């Protein structure tokens, strides 16, 4: 399914290739794939939503009509949602700004006062 | 000077196939097996109607034909040149998918051959639809492959669908008894027989990968008639439904 790519981190679909068949057993759900949309060459791929599909190839096939039908698009990525690692929702507090640490923000340095003082001293 | 009658005949066949196939595929809208597929299939049905429109416009603008809407919606059944393949009712999804696969591969072969056409409007159109058809055949191939290898029931249904459609699909390449030689001589396109063999060469490897058995080429008896205005009983009701709104007021401005 992949071929020699300009960006070796990304697998690219060969249109003629069948790909591996993914067997979905009775009672099992299809996988969910996250879809990333690239508006022009060199631009970031932006997350636009997800599709249900049995395998990555069909995920890409579905994503094309689902997310690239109207908006300008030059490429898409699909990533199996299960391959994404995220923090636990409970751990959101890790991101909370500690008010005691404003000295860490560059904006926290109060230098104007000193600069003005210096200028006046001239 | 081009043979306009021959060109007109060829373009009507292509356009009517696109229109009827597009209409049939659009009948799946809202009924597709999963939402994602419903959207993809409906979108491709719209593409087909778009191709039909482009071809009807070509008849109108380049060959002095009637305006596209009245040509598409007001002609009697016997004046249609659609193939029997596209007229068939949708049946179940296996049938519709197999027809989609065989039809779109044939369409791709046809437009590829038009890249070298001596008739410029067809050459331009073939470039325009190239990307769309690439997607249509990718979609068709992916499904044929998946469903043919997804277990016994699925496999036997796909094989049955192939058995049911192959002779009908071969009928897409019904040569014109009157115009064929002129179109080939004037290098409009390479002719139906050449396209038929290219098509067999194109579908064969996909079917092999899917482990589906294609009958011996000699054993396929193409279903002809559509190009001569002889149709299945399914076309008339389709035309009636398709043109129902248009016929309420044929002069209405939209």
UniProtKB/TrEMBL annotation, chain A:
InterPro entries: PaaB (IPR009359), PaaB_sf (IPR038693). It comes from the Bacteria. This is Ring-1,2-phenylacetyl-CoA epoxidase subunit PaaB.
UniProtKB/TrEMBL annotation, chain B:
The lineage of its organism: Bacteria, Pseudomonadati, Bacteroidota, Chitinophagia, Chitinophagales. GO terms for cellular component: cytosol. Gene3D superfamilies: 1.20.1260.10. PANTHER family: 1,2-PHENYLACETYL-COA EPOXIDASE, SUBUNIT C, PHENYLACETIC ACID DEGRADATION PROTEIN PAA. InterPro entries: Aromatic_CoA_ox/epox, Ferritin-like, Ferritin-like_SF, PaaA_PaaC, PaaC. This is Ring-1,2-phenylacetyl-CoA epoxidase subunit PaaC. GO terms for biological process: phenylacetate catabolic process. Pfam families: PaaA_PaaC (PF05138). It comes from the Bacteria. It comes from Chitinophaga arvensicola.
